[in-house]
Batch of 3 targets.
Target 1
Amino acid sequence: MGMWASLDAMWEMPAEKRIFGAVLLFSWTVYLWETFLAQRQRRIYKTTTHVPLELGQIMDSETFEKSRLYQLDKSTFSFWSGLYSEIEGTLILLFGGIPYLWRLSGRFCGYAGFGPEYEITQSLVFLLLATLFSALTGLPWSLYNTFVIEEKHGFNQQTLGFFMKDAVKKFIVTQCILLPVSSLLLYIIKIGGDYFFIYAWLFTLVVSLVLVTIYADYIAPLFDKFTPLPEGKLKQEIEVMAKSIDFPLTKVYVVEGSKRSSHSNAYFYGFFKNKRIVLFDTLLEEYSVLNKAILEESGMEARKDGEGDSEEIKANVKNKKQGCKNEEVLAVLGHELGHWKLGHTVKNIIISQMNSFLCFFLFAVLIGRKELFSAFGFYNSQPTLIGLLIIFQFIFSPYNEVLSFCLTVLSRRFEFQADAFAKKLGKAKDLYSALIKLNKDNLGFPVSDWLFSMWHYSHPPLLERLQALESSKQD
């Protein structure tokens, strides 16, 4: 009876109170669900202290323990940062942080001689202040993650000076993109008439395509050094493989990712007949800064002991080595190019744009509802930017959660298909060993709770991928 009475009471509230209550309730429901899943996975980290039988041939006990402790630390950090984020978001809503920041933005505009009629100018000031607040409150967490957790487990390569310079640069570059794009989007919504949602969607489509096109050539080099992969066997083999599947490769780059982290990666980008491949130096055995340091250190030890070619030292170097051999790099690229050949990239773009169009259409339907603005403290005005924030971030949050889960399931399916494509290229054996090496280099923990992995993992668990490849190796 008590539950039904409270529900009845909720329905008797004004519409704006119901909306506000529902948004807060859903936010905490999602947070508690995520925390429940994280605790399930954390239990796995705590209780799985020995290498399971099925992983005996894949992972040594030392690496297994390192990855277990790394993931435990990340899990603890994730719990506290998640709790802080949820409390901060709740307090901002409860104490009217959004309308306060909007009024503050109006005050700043007033000092500069811009009145309330300059809504787009006020919106840009609001965005600048909101992103500045977000950057400053997120900075201590980012510092702790980089200089305590990543440092402790041997991944961080940054100095504090490099980190701060990088953070300032990221903030400036973000503003240079965010502010002009937002002002044009708001202008289009203002003048677009009844069909503004179509023009707004087309504008965001063009912007996203332009950003994808220019990112690696003009934005990424502001943060990392990109150098063409030198002529040699690896480059030739990459070109041959690309040609064999009609991938229109124009350039292959190596990015100096080791300046900031020893995590490894590879990706391709570009449209139509202008595709480029980017390899992290940490992925390539012969480029790895860590390997060079290990070799130098081992050489010094050998000279001290007078045993220049000691078998023990060679084994030690091999065991500590980071990155993949050329054949394994090709297998990883075979997997990545599989995403292109199987149309995964295009499918993802189509899904993203269909979702974007639907969201703008629903935004057009809801933007006239004054109670949505009243729910968040905007009683006398309905600014377009605030409407976008309320509808896209709060009202659509249940839909966004469902969509995110569906995309995670689809992503895992795509990963299996890309692995199968690499098999067809005859790369099963090399991809098998590359996945083990990458898991070891990145200290991935190979045991996962089924519910946690189903909800979160965009890639299938390591063991499932290896089992799928194992069958083809035996074939």
Target 2
Amino acid sequence: MAFPELLDQVGNLGRFQFVQTVALVVPILHVTAQNMLENFSTAVLSHRCWVPLLDNSTTQDSVPGTLDTEALLAVSIPLGPNQRPHTCRRFRQPQWQLLDPNATAANWSKAATEPCVDGWVYDHSTFTATVVTKWDLVCDSQALKPMAQSIFLAGILVGAVVCGHVSDSDGVDVGSGPPLDDDHELSGLQLWPNPDGRSGLWPASLGTAATGPLYPFLPLLCLFMVAARVGTVAAIHGQSGPRPAGAAEGGLHQPEEDNRGHPDQGAMQEELSGPQASASLGTLFHMPGLRLRTWISMLCWFTFGFTFYGLVLDLQALGSSNIFLLQVLIGVVDIPTKMGTQLLLDRLGRRPTQASSLVLSGLCILANTLVPHEMGPLCSALAVLGLGSLGAAFSCITVYSGELFPTVLRMTAVGLGQMAARGGAMLGPLVRLLGIHNPWLPLLVYGVVPVLGGLAALLLPETQNLPLPDTLQDVQNQAVKKATHSTPAPSVLTSTRL
């Protein structure tokens, strides 16, 4: 039995899918907001070294004459590479000779400067305080910020590995029986056996649970629903496996009539026990028809995670003077971008959409390296376009990767891709450490990687309007058809006078 036929028999859209979607969307919204909060909670404020002439009232009183703040700043803080007051060094002694109109920067040397040994003074006009100002994560300690973000994303990667392994383990088979005890009935949610008589649990008052005190536990509710649905499908096709000891005596046995009326049960059992059931992770990297698809699909996933999280966790690096406006623009543009991507997938196909979205995002990031920071609106426009293209690439690879692999390996391949994306997200913030050597190096790396990923996506086969491959043989047949169509057959037509 093919997978689409199984879905048609079991049902591919219903209350369970709706509840599952809602239960997953709600926590995802919180996670996304938490991730984007990094731009504000760890914002780097304008800063300079603490100097006595400017920040010590006693020393200011001893200054001869009436000198304004700019003059005191000029004799206390040297100019940096951008011809603005240096953010990490100060003069050991006030350089009064710099007040001479004929004086130049050559009148002092680096030996006359020192690090900010007394701390920093921050500009609190936008933020009263951030993590950076709390722990002075600037100058020699500026590398700690991207390292902390990388460790945070590494935790997500480890959590995905652990939770993925747990989700693939054997679940708990819940049979039909009497209503649960009062101990299992919670405010806003009552769990009863599935009313159709099959194995599973049923939420008696889901609407109340979504608005009541159990609102934070909607993901847990989704877990109950998934377990119930899996138990139902397993019972239908006789794949529920051995039951715990004493289940039959306790009234938790499966009624015999649940297995009736399914003539395809034997055929499905034969298919699941055949050679296709032995497909494993190694098949993705050893089978010729799947090896290239696997590596390029993982590269596309990695490119998205690497570039997106490397940029979106530090919007200040994109040169915009107003990260609040930039954040709003990114969120506003993302919605029509996702909708437009679906249209492009139907009109242009999967491969052109995937390649063009990655290449466009990379070109926008590379163009941002050539724009001066004084041109804030242009920097913001390029940043919004680049991140929007990355969002389109994510929507495309989510659909595309599912169509490239057969049913027996589809979730394994998609899981590998998502792991690659999380690995890229973990490495993305670390690239900003290159900014110590040159400010434009991180953006150069963030721009080159999507371009290379987009060009590699051109090597993938087009899957538009093709049936989903169910078995490994289907993938091989697609490769054979592609090779056959790519080699034109000799013409058998001859021209005649007629």
Target 3
Amino acid sequence: MRERAKSGQQQPVDDSYSRWKNVVPVIYDWLANHNLVWPSLSCRWGPQFEHGNHKNRQRLYLSEQTDGTVPNTLVIANCEIVKPRVAAAEYISAFNEEARSPFVKKHKTILHPGEVNRIRELPQSNRIVATHTDCPDVFIWDIEAQPNRHAVLGAAVSRPDLILTGHQDNAEFALAMCPAEPFVLSGGKDKSVVLWSIQDHISTLATDSETTKPPGSGGSIIKSNSNPSEGNDKPADSPSIGPRGIFHGHEDTVEDVQFCPSSAQEFCSVGDDSCLILWDARTGSSPVVKVEKAHNADLHCVDWNPHDQNLILTGSADNSVCMFDRRNLTSGGVGSPIHKFEDHKAAVLCVQWCPDKSSVFGSSAEDGLLNIWDHQLVGKKKESGPRTPTSASGLFFKHAGHRDKVVDFHWNASDPWTVVSVSDDCDVSGGGGTLQIWRMSDMIYRDEDAVLAELRNFKSHVAECPSWQ
């Protein structure tokens, strides 16, 4: 099984990084670079809580993977998101990769029991997140009710608001929250996929007053059987629940899981056995469809299209991304993807569909690149941007701002075409990581005719302006 950011071969990214820096003001509408003291293996957007004329403010979830001298942490940050066409090109080009961005500020620190390998937010509540660490359990946190802690040597870890049990071995990376209902899905080294419902453990505050309650107000919305006077320092004191179902079908570690966007009963999983499996909890604990050879190596990640629920993406250690149509999948044999997207030079670690256009998705890899693809461009003679004989079909943007493996990224559902990405820079800097928040220029993804019309209008405007000399 891969160790996503805990090990891995350093890729030659210096050349592409240097070329990228030269074109930053041209291809980005906004870019913020934030140097991390400790590497983070996960990054997720939280709720947007303030709207301004030029900037919005939004929660951002990160982790700090320490060396043991201080506790590992789950970090809740406040992030300022500059609105489209506000940032000046001079500012965008002047970023310092060694600096800490003024747009990202810590709001709260939770001392996490073990490393934070994966963070996932609950769509039904803007206060609940789940985390995976190097143990069999899933931790559920009410991040607004948790006290702010200081990460110092010897400090007791924070206590999760709820613990989900059911795995028989460590479950480190595979974690998903259901968009339809408050269900949680996990996979682990025990080769199983485990499903929980936390519906009965979240109070009605989550639905009755969530939209009117600002972040940071009120007590925990997770029902607890523990005595508050006992403190908040031992995970073992947290309430726990068992699984709703355990599903068997993989022959090796389950590396990623994802719900069908419209159902809490349908989900998929991928693993180190090179299999893509589709499940339906209503039909039992066995696979509905098992694609035995979805890739030619371990599968690291999977995502289900929220706009077209027939399309599923998988990323693999064979450096490729495959797109499957579940209507064409049959059990056994080699998987037959609609298309295989090949451009990365190292293992793909994360794939995610874009919430703003149904045919667009991103993929990040150990080669230090985050590629943006549009499957509608595949097979077309005329694709957006300059084409070279070596250009990959469907690829229309490369984010090359990281100097080491890009371990995670997340599209911002509240701010169109805005992405947060994080890299583990231990191999190039000896420690730490890089967080980047960025938005490509809208002239890259907008309709070509609309872009050309805008440029013509701008040219006419410039021509009509009186000379300043």
